[in-house]
Amino acid sequence: MADDSTDHQLAAGLAPSLALLAAVRETGNITRAAELLGVPQPTVSRRIAAMGELFGAPLTRPDGRGIQLTRAGALLADAATRAMTTVDTAVRQAREEISPSTGLVALGFLHLLGRSLVPGLISGFRAEHPGVRFSLVQGSRQDILDRLARGELDLVLVAPVPTGDGVEAVAVGEQQLYLTVPERHRLASRREVRMTELADESFVLLEHGYGLRQIIDGLCRDAGFTPRIAFEGQESDTVRGLVAAGLGVSLLPRFEPGTPAGVAEIPVRPRTTRTLGLAWPSSGPLPPAVRAFRDHAIRHVYDAASSTRVRAAKPVPPGTTSA
To answer: Per residue in 175-199, pLDDT tens?
Structure first.
């Protein structure tokens, strides 16, 4: 049985070529793996064969016209993928440390925040940092938090504020939720509506995995009923459109810049809000451009006069986790 020293020597011998295994698993083909890495195909074949000889067992096997990793190869490829993510991050941080004004910020956010909040934040930031680039991702709360955990995103704007290991967050504001009904609905002319009055309504809601869905399910539960779901969607504009078509009611933040045709928006009692949170990984320092945008967002996002109608929420100091 190999001792720790032998394992260390073997790992050191395999390390320079482990990225090849990750590329082979991704492509299932030597030629495409070589193209992905920008190296000649014979080089990839020779290195993988040499890795198998060094390891003492084949790491790949033929699979039709392609190639497949053996069980041992797959285990090494998993480790290589995790390691390459770490190295990629370190390279990016080092490069941006030299030139932070040309960095990249990968920002994830809920669909509802893409109408004015996110564009406003980026516009204000780019006025001072015109060379910084952005990669923008919209999705459900769970989806973008998962992508944050995998290292695919630098920062996320979600609601409710995330908590738990591996993430730091700041509560940056809150949005009031309104009952959204068809304009000819029996409640459309009301000045306010209590949640208990909605027990017999059909609801159009976002799917499970969205933070807003969690909030609405909890509100209905507290009001003593389970919502009768007519339709579920993945995007708030679709939900609002289904409501306008008379297919149900929903609870949504107020539409900006004003209530759209076909629906009425009515305050709910008790007053119902959701807290917005800005979150980032707690492991290791943020790249300079990401850190600069995070600080910009914390300074500017809780503005009661903003077009998102986000009311100021007490911020949690950076470096702590919001409850």
So the answer is: 899 999 999 999 999 999 999 999 9
Q: Is the peptide bond before 270 cis (omega within 30 degrees of 0)?
A: yes
Q: How far apart are CA 309 and CA 196, in angstroms?
A: 26
C-alpha 216/C-alpha 146 separation (Å) is 22
Length of the chain: 323
Please answer whether residues 321 and 135 qualify as being in contact, where contact means their C-beta atoms are separated by less than 8 angstroms.
no
Single-letter amino acid code for the residue at 34: A
Report the distance separating Cα 261 and Cα 255, nearest Å.
11
- Report the interhelical angle of 30-37 vs 41-55 (nearest 10°): 110
pLDDT digits (tens, 9 = 90+) for 158-177: 988 988 889 999 988 888 99
pLDDT tens-digit readout, 132-145: 999 999 988 899 99
State whether the Cα torsion 286-290-294-299 is positive or negative: positive
Q: Does residue 160 have a cis peptide bond before it, meaning omega lies within 30 degrees of 0? A: yes
Burial of 267 by CB count in 10 Å (0-12 exposed, 13-18 middle, 19+ buried)? Answer: middle
Mean pLDDT calculated for residue range 197-215: 92
Return the sign of the alpha-carbon dihedral for residues 303, 304, 309, 314. positive
Nearest-Å Rg of the Cα atoms of the chain is 25
Taken in order 236, 143, 116, 271, the sign of the CA dihedral is positive
CA–CA dist 212, 206 (Å, integer): 7
Please classify residue 112 by burial: count the beta carbons closer than 10 Å to its beta carbon, then call 0-12 exposed, 13-18 middle and 19+ buried: buried
pLDDT, tens digit, 9 for 90 and up, residues 93-113: 677 666 667 788 999 999 888
The torsion of the CA quartet 125, 129, 134, 139, rounded to 10 degrees, works out to: -10
Q: Which two tokens stand for residue 228?
A: 């009768």
pTM for this predicted structure = 0.62
